[in-house]
Each structure stands twice: as structure tokens, then as C-alpha cells.
Design goal:
The complex is a heterodimer of chains A (126) and B (375). Chain A is 17% helix and 35% strand. Chain A has 126 residues and is an alpha+beta fold. The termini of chain B are far apart. Chain B is of the alpha+beta class and 375 residues long. The chains are: A alpha+beta (126), B alpha+beta (375).
Chain lengths: 126, 375
Amino acid sequence: MNVPADLRYAKTHEWIRQENDIISVGITDHAQAELTDIVYAEPPKVGVEVKAGATAAVVESVKAASDIYSPLSGVVTEVNDALTSNPALLNTDPFGQGWIFKLKASNPAEIDALLTPEAYTAQIGQ
Amino acid sequence: MSDPALLKHSPLESAHVACGARMVEFGGWYMPVQYSGIMEEHRAVRSASGMFDISHMGEVIVSGPGALAWLESLLTNRVGKLAVTRGQYTLMLDERGGVIDDLIIYRTGELSYFLVINGACRDLDIEWMRGHLPADDSVLLQDQGNDYAAIALQGGDSEKILRSLFPGCDVPKRNGIAPLIPSLLASEGSIPSLVARTGYTGEDGFELFVPVAHGIALWESLLAAGVKPCGLGSRDTLRLEMGYPLNGSDLSRDRTPLEAALDRFVGLDDPEKGDFSGRKALEQQRSEGFPCRLTPLKLSVQGPPLRSHYPVLADGVAVGETCSGALSPSLGEGIAMAYLPEACRTPGTQLEIEVRGRRYAASIATLPFYKKPSL
């Protein structure tokens, strides 16, 4: 299972990528494999405030709907509209084209509480 | 997930694990929900072939001089019209007309019948049947659910595959049943192997019933013939695309077959069908009218996959909830079934389905949702 070294992870299987003060959020390779065929994605709306650990988005496989939790608190600055027409990007490129939303973090210190790639790898038992 | 140790296990479980199955709890059973993916498995059945472990379903053999009369009193449509080797979909109701189970009954001999009941309510069904047996010994009921492994081979390629694996097999016609391999029948005493041309996918296909000891070999021979292993996930989307009801979701003790729009499987107007459990309740309901009817719905807009227990609104007012729902893999549209009041059918009624607080426009569909492309 792919766990890129340049990202930080939430226990609930989301990743973050830091680009200056903008943070991209998505789900991990492990998460997409567990969810299987993703057929629907409901990202948050631009401008909404999200809280660390609270539901920010929903993705659905044929079988089940799963909440996606924001790893950090902040304001949503951009959402990945490509997921509306092609939710399978979450399966095929979870760390790239399958990103879900970007946020401006209101409390960057929360990043320290997230898992390192090593710790996340250990959590998923690899 | 429930502890697998507390669940019932299929005789084919090791084959599922070898095929990379994802196992889940279903109706008290530990069963494969998918292998390669629900979409891929669904498409395999619609376009070629797939196989499902249906060993969780129960097999009951009813025989004896009183078998026919007793089955007529137990089931909703006329058993007497079945010729030997023929089968039909039917329902078993309680006195109030509520659905205990939907099942298939095949006539396997002059005085013998083979019933296939749902896995989740096997024990309850058997208990109900035993509780209603005649006091004399004119009817013999044998619960053979633990003696059979069962595999549904479904899809347009099924007949070709069956013939290649069982040359000389007497291939039954639609809804028919035949011995699978006559020699096996002799070797296993009272457990004959059977092949029925039935299924629950809307495709041509067969249900194969073999003694437990032969189950894995049958699975492996189908696998070697190129049949795709399919789990309960695609079984559910395939049956819902056809509008086939699932007991426990669409059918229950609180609904009658009239409410479930299954009138054609109820012999109320058959002059040769006598009394049966639930008949009086159905007649009363038919004369007095009933509040709701199982209604196929389709999203009119792009939206999330539909699932059970989503609110359904008519002109903004909650009128019911979905009992089955899916994103139809064949159509790419949200489809669902819901018990709705007759008034919702009035043209111009604005129907909506609510998902996570958001309402999506819906309309009443005609069944089957999925129609096979004409050749």
C-alpha cells in the first residue's frame, strides 16, 4: 500500500499536503482500497468552516457511504470538481488527481498531532 | 462487523478466501460481499457470466400423499399447476397476510417438491412449516439446508458453460429443474444433485445444488471455466435493477404481497386455488383498499447512490422511505423501491428523495429498471 513520505496522515485515513499556507486533503490508498469502487463524492462547499476531526465530505461506494473527516480546522478554499463527474479518481489516484478539497488552516499547530508516514504505515499494519 | 465465530459458515468459505473475497455478515451468515469489485462483478453477469455462493439459502424437501394439499394451504399461488420438473416463485404468509418468506418451489416428482428459502429466515421458515404440518403422517418435511452446497451460475454464457462442464446433462428450461448428474444422485443416497434454470439477476442462468462434499469441486470447475466469482453486493444490484424484492428490505411481516405489488404471485382469482394462510386478510385488504404500495423510483437528477431508509417526499411532505436503493451499475442512475400512498401516483406530484438533508427530484419508474438491450 502506497504511503507517500511527504504527507501527514489522520488516524481516520485522510492525508494532508502542505503548500505554503494552503493544505490539500484526500483519502489514503489504504482507504480507497477498503472502500472499493467509489461512485460518488460530495466535497464540502468553498468558504465553509471545517473542524479537525469533524465530517467535511462524503464518499460512497456501491455498498456504503463513508464520512471523510477534515484532518485540520480551517476554511475551505477550493474543492475538486473533477470528482463530481469522475469519482473513480479517488480510487485510481488518491494522492494526486483524487484530492478532495483545500483549506486554509486556522490552527497550523494541529498538524503536529497528525501521524507521520511511518506512524500511519504502522497503524495500517504494513 | 459481527464476530465470524458467532455466524453460520458456507461450505465454500475456503474457496472464497482463495478467490480474495471480502467477507461480511449477512442475515447471520459469513458471506462474500465482493471479490474484484461490485461494478465489475455486476457487469460480468450482465455481459458474460458470474457465480454466487447461495449455500446460505435453505433447501426443503416436501413429499408424501398429502404434500400437494398441504403446500396449497401454505403458499400463495397454485402449486397444483406445476408439472413435474417445473418451478415457480411464491410466497409464504402468516394469518395477517404478512410475508414470512418468498421462495421458489419446484415439483421434482409426482408427490415430491423442492423448496428453496432465504438464508436469513431459514430457521423461522422451517419452524413455521413444521408448526403447520397435518397431524397425520401424510406429509414428510425434510430440512436439507445443511446437506447442500449451492451455486448460482448467472449470465448469458451460463448454458454454454453448464453444457461444457456437464456434457449430457438434461438442461432444464426456464423455471425448470433436473438432476445435475444422475450418477451422483445414486452415490449420495437421499441427496440428489439438482440444476434449476432460475436465479435472481434477470439473466439466463442456473442454480446448482450439490451435496456439501462436492461444493468446492463444483466452484473450482466453474472458476476454471472462466466464470467470475460474484458476491452479495452485485447480487443485490442485479436483483434491484430487475425490481425483484429482497425479504427483510422490501418484504416483511408488516406488508402483504398486495402492498408489495406481487399480485401475480397470489392466486386469489384462481378458481382452483383453495384457502391458504393469509388469504382472508388479503381478500379483506383488497376489498377495503390498502394504504401503500411498493413503488419503483428513479432519481431525475444526478445524485448520490440511493440506499435504504432515505425519506421520500411528495410535494414537500414526507410520505415514506426507501426500502432498497442503489446506484444502478447498468444505468448509472439512482434507483430505489419505497412503499408509497396511491396519491403519490397522481400526475404532477413532485417526488423527492432526501439524502443527508438534501432533496433530489425523483419520479416513478416502470419495472424492470434495467431492460436488456434488444439484439
